[in-house]
Amino acid sequence: MSTLRGKTIFISGGSRGIGRSIALRAAADGANVVIAAKTTEPHPKLPGTIFSVADEIKAAGGTPLPLEVDIRDEAAVRDAAERTAATFGGIDIVVNNASAINLTPVADTPMRRYDLMMGVNARGTFAVTQACLPWLKKSDNPHVLVLSPPINLDPKWFARHTAYTMSKYGMSMCVIGMAAEFAADGIAVNALWPRTVIATAALAMLGGLVNPDNCRKPEIMADAAHAVLTRVSRDHTGKFYIDDEVLKEAGVTDFSKYAVKPGAPLAPDLFL
Fold first, then answer.
1. Does a structural domain hold residue 21?
2. Residue 38 is part of a domain; what is its CATH number?
3. CA nearest neighbour of 254 among 268, 267, 244, 265
4. Domain count, the chain
5. 245 in helix, strand or coil?
6. Which of 33, 51, 188, 215 is the S-S candidate for 199 at Cβ 3.0 to 4.6 Å?
């Protein structure tokens, strides 16, 4: 399978950044794309709402369904999954894209930030996948893709931001457990993580830790996600994919188009 035409994709988050890019790449194939996110009004610093992305999905050739959802709310998540299935007849793909980040040490991490990261990242991934599971089991090529890193227990990935690392590794542990649990149903559960920092609007919220010129564009993650999601689900599960490795396997040799500033050194992402 090389296209997502006619597939229904449920994306958590997605009003901007990597989630938006994955949505638009799927839309270009003619997919049905659900944007399940909280942003219904423009953020003063971050562009994009579920409705603006829905317009972009339609313009790209897909069929959008914007849903206002806080994935920390179990009832809202279940309602969104049911509305998706009622609208499109099922759910073929789940992309657990929504994520909260706070790169602070223990002493500087308010418990409300800890709870936010755990609620959105680990718990949200679990809740969204669980809610969509009945329809994934009925799909002919079901996939769950989690935007989380391979688990690396080197203390350097904990020392400066223990709470964030715990929350992201919680997502990764979902991949390990769910891939094994859902194997008999033919549901692929995989992770995807970028080799380099990705230039998104949210990057500015991190206080200039990384120069955008040293980043790649979100489109590299979108193309890598497309490559994973068009594979035969029963043959590819429980993997921790890195974006450029996936694309190399797909025959891509020139990555300059993904660079914000071609030729500039690239900043490696966390956990790699």
1. yes
2. 3.40.50.720
3. 244
4. 1
5. helix
6. 215
**Strand residues in 25-79 grouped as ranges (E):** 32-37, 63-68
DSSP E strands in the chain: the ranges are 8-12, 32-37, 63-68, 93-96, 143-146, 188-193, 240-242
Q: Do 194 and 220 contact (CB within 8 A), yes or no? A: yes
Q: Which domain holds residue 24?
A: 8-258
pLDDT of residue 202: 72
Containing H/E element for 249?
helix 243-249
- CB neighbourhood size of 138 (10 A): 13
Residues annotated as part of the active site: 164
Write the pLDDT tens digit of every residue in 7-17: 999 999 989 99
Q: Is 82 within the bounds of a domain? A: yes
| C-alpha to C-alpha distance for 12 and 103, rounded to whole angstroms | 22
What are the angstrom distances between the C-alpha of 210 and each of 183, 196, 218, 269, 270? 39, 11, 15, 10, 12
22 occurs within a structural domain: yes
Per-residue pLDDT of 253-265, as tens digits, reads 999 999 999 999 9
| 163 part of a folded domain | yes
- Could you report the per-residue pLDDT of 197-236, keeping only the tens digit for each? 999 877 766 667 899 999 999 999 999 999 999 999 999 9
Q: Which secondary-structure segment (H or E) carries 76? A: helix 74-88
Q: How much is the pTM?
A: 0.97
What is residue 175's three-state secondary structure?
helix
